[in-house]
Amino acid sequence: MTDHTTTDPATETFVAHRNLLFTVAYEMLGSAADAEDVLQETWLRWVEVDLDHVRDQRAYLVRITTRQALNRLRSMKRRREAYVGQWLPEPLLTTPDVAEDAELAESMSMAMMLVLESLSPTERAVFVLREVFDVGYDEIAEAVGKTPAAVRQIAHRARRHVDARRPRKQSSPGEVRAALESFRRALETGDPQDLLDVLAPQVVLLSDGGGIKRAALRPVIGAEKIVRFALGGTAKIAAGLTCVPTVVNGSPALAVRRDGDLDGVMTVRVEDGLITGLYFVRNPEKLTRLASETPLTLH
Description:
The chain is α+β, with helices and mostly antiparallel strands. The chain contains 12 helices and 6 strands. It has helices at 9-29, 32-46, 57-81, 96-100, 102-108, 110-117, 121-132, 137-144, 148-165, 173-189, 192-198, 223-234, and strands at 199-208, 220-221, 241-248, 251-258, 261-271, 274-281. A hairpin with a 2-residue loop joins β4 (251-258) and β5 (261-271). The model has no long low-confidence stretch (mean pLDDT 92).
């Protein structure tokens, strides 16, 4: 009697590494929808491969995923140029183990993802594979179509670029939660001074409405300007506004609800106990991955 539950080796291997491949694609693209498309393209190429000639199947899959993500990243550049207002990465509701992995959580934070946006596609691929996933230079070279020597130079340049823009020191999840809780209370009570007390003087707010929801088209810089923007936008609907603590991209966040419906998600960058960056995603097309947890992994 034939066992119809048995899957073929190609499918088993792909499924076993799917979470890793999604994480690689998402780190490179900042978009879950595009990462899913990359995985579909990776699968279509993977099933055509003769597995008898593949020495390291995990490395081979990562290589296919990287190439497909690079192709998509280059085409996305044109889409980003036509985007209305600020573009922010698509937030993901993440599992508790992501928050517990400090390295993964930092690499997926909104602040870090925005730093990665400033790299060229090849620099981003090299940085992500080397610094986040600890892939060897030879393997990266095969994935991006460069020599190992060239990859080392690209990695050095990308690392220097990222180090110059990343937070000086990483705040603990507890510090971020405390700052977010103070911000939440001040926002719900509408007290300007309480808001000023938790914001750094030169704090920057980036809000992404995608031309669909109200959002600042440019960065709002400075605590007083942000307080006016935040309270002006919530004054009329304060009675129906709630901010619920959640975990997005491995970091504490707030799910902002209006009359019970998800209106947006807010994450922050915290330094020395004060909020230095606010990232508010309101574009409804980017809020689809907040209903259920997305499993992510470095391995």
